[in-house]
Amino acid sequence: MKKKENYPLIIFSLATFAFFVLFTHLIIKTDDGHFLGILNEESFSLTEWLYQRYNTVSGRTVSEFLMMSFLKINPIFWKAFATGSFVFIAWFLQKICSAFSGTLTPIQKNIFCCSVPFLVFIGALNSGAFWFAGSFTFLFPFTAFLLTVAPLTFEYFGIKYNKIAFNIIAVSASLLACSQEQTAALTIVFLTVLLIVNSFKKTLRFYHAPPMFFGFASAVWLFTSPGMTGRQTLESGSFPRFTEMNVFEKLLCGFSNYFGYSLFMSLIVTGVFAVLVFFMVSTLYDDKKVKTFSKLFLIFFVAVVVVLNIIYIAINHTVPDKGFEKAFKNGSFDLTDIFTLVLCFTLLLMLAAMLVLLIVKDKKLGLAVSILFAASVASAVVVGFSSSIYASGQRVFYFTDMLMLFACAILISSGKGKHTVNVYNTAVIIALVMFIINCFNFALLEIPIMG
To answer: Which DSSP letter does residue 159 get?
Structure first.
């Protein structure tokens, strides 16, 4: 039986590697070509280039060192490394889901975990994972983030793992995880929370501390780099009003960016999450008031992400994402922008209330899902404090989708009844369809859909 449970991951590994080998490539008209040109200059020195980048562009020294190192060798090594990242993400998620039980069989849970990486919105997925330059800023730091928190996560859930190997890997992974702004914040916060909860459970050991030390050092190197300030100044040219905005406006800008993406664009991920939360709360409670509130939440969710989206486009002749961008850049908000933001915040509060109800009935499940959801929102909102918020595209939401899908995997692993199986079947079919679409997307387009 154990061998059969591994079949989904084996098939997933082969399919992912085949996709990378057959369809992905260096996209010369993007940053891939730019960095390749720099690498081929006769006077190029990796040490000098990294020093220059640190002082003028960014402190992402570790990820950029890896990127230039892989650019020197045959692309097959990058494809193998990227496949390994995908496989580890699915495997890690399988280990977490094994701590929860529900209607789905172990094989079905493993199949869903393997579907997760392909459920990410195509614009964020392609630019964050399948694009050479983008993978070193999003896919690999996210994988490193998981490797860094893996030992403490396994300790918390009581999952067996190779303590020596994983704790050694976690130290080196923390350097890469904290070489990107979003994953640096995620890593430090998650490590802090896990260190605290494991100390209360008395499962904390001295060898769990080094990843935090090295991760924090890497984060300090990143955030204090002169290049970060220089890049912010350079990119502020595309968003001149950013320097005039106060903290509240930047926070609101981040939330509007999150709403524009998650509620009006990445509907598959958000929709699966909302439906699973609705079914879980409805199943756990017999109280009529709670069941009524759950139904109102689902109705309001559909009204916002579908009806409001259509109305906004009809009135403004643009999608909410672009409408919010124009409003914040101009500092002028019309009634549709204000009305839409109010309804979005109302929906977010209702979802928060649903998660509280979940925590009350099942603390282990509720806290795991709530923390992942809060992290997914925070990883998007924090971009509002960067002047490049509208210059980076949809790839900055790669972490948002992945974290929310992790929450979905835990929910579906804990779900009971026919509705859980129906959501599972739908999600797996969508992932398969998206995989096939991307095969054609990369095969037929010079520059595939990149968000």
So the answer is: -
Q: What is the per-residue DSSP string for 416-438? A: -SHHHHHHHHHHHHHHHHHHHHH
Q: Are 413 and 97 in contact (CB under 8 A)?
A: yes
Sequence-separated (6 or more) residues with CB below 8 Å from residue 182: 141, 379, 382, 383, 396, 399
Amino acid type, 130: F
Integer Cα distance of 291 and 394 in angstroms: 35
Quote the CA–CA distance of 155 and 149 in Å, as a whole number.
10
d(CA 125, CA 135): 10
Ramachandran area for residue 319 (φ above 0: left; ψ -120 to 50: alpha; else beta): beta
- Greatest C-alpha distance within the chain: 73
For the full predicted model, state whether its pTM sits above 0.85: yes
d(CA 280, CA 294) in angstroms, rounded, equals 10
Here the tokens at position 33 are 């070509």
| Interhelix angle 210-223/163-177, nearest 10 degrees | 10
pLDDT, tens digit, for every residue of 67-122?
A: 999 999 999 999 999 999 999 999 999 999 999 999 999 999 999 999 999 999 99
Its sign, for the CA torsion 355, 356, 359, 360, is negative
Contact (Cβ atoms closer than 8 angstroms) between residue 118 and residue 128: no
Residue 111's identity, in one-letter code, is I
Contacts of 399 (CB under 8 A, 6+ apart): 138, 142, 182, 183, 186, 376, 379, 380
Q: Which of 114, 29, 208, 167 is nearest to 424 (CA)?
A: 114
